[in-house]
Amino acid sequence: REGGIDKSLADIQQVLKLTEALLFNNIIKEVRVAALLKLVQINTHSKSQLGQQTTEEDLTTNRLCVDEAKLLQPNNVTTLLLDADLSTLENNLPLALEKVDKVIDSFGESDALPYVIKANILTQKAFQQMNDESTIHLSQQTFLDSTSFYNKALTIDSNSIEALTQLSQVKQMFGDIAHSVELAEKSMKLGRNKDELQEICQLYNNAKAQKAALEALKITG
User: Fold this and answer.
1) Helices (H) and strands (E) in the chain, counts
2) CA neighbours within 13 Å on the CB side: how many for 62?
3) How far from the centroid of its chain's Cα atoms is residue 42's Cα?
4) How does the average pLDDT of the chain come out, rounded?
5) CA–CA separation, 15 vs 46, rounded Å?
6) Residue 52 backbone dihedrals phi, psi, to 5 degrees
7) Residues in CB range of 168: below 8 A, 6 or more apart
8) How many Å apart are CA 129 and CA 138, to the nearest integer?
């Protein structure tokens, strides 16, 4: 809820204020990093789930938070992935890919999320290529590359809800409706909160509607 976001932001600001002068303590340092990353998560994912746009002020705050978190804990995987994600929001896709590749090189196949984030970046890159006549011929291969990384994520964690939902969307765009429905249906069983489940249900219903329309066309044809 929007009021809940405001309260969470106020609580986080209080934590940041209390920890600012106590960074010589490792436990306090961990608390501060967690608060910084939570602030970024609210400014991006939580607001997005409520239909709110990320503002320029949010992006500036996010960058400051991530940069400080990287200084405090340079090898924190969550921080490094948020850094790549933020570069995507800043529309610096080459830098975002470079950052996520470093995470993959450092941590290998222990986590599905870096592959999901790389796939997301490539999907956005493909959309950009589609909107440019000079690169539109490259977009199909870029979409295929993104799909391969979603599939890679699912080989590491078959219940990765991020990989399932994002791949469902890509499959839907390419007309693989049956597979899109299957992926969305599986992800519905894994929803972690009401807002996330609402988004997945919308994805599933859209895919089901397209599937029904295609089947109706076959019958009338």
Assistant:
1) 11, 0
2) 24
3) 13
4) 90
5) 19
6) -90, 140
7) 179, 180, 181, 183, 184, 187, 203, 207
8) 7
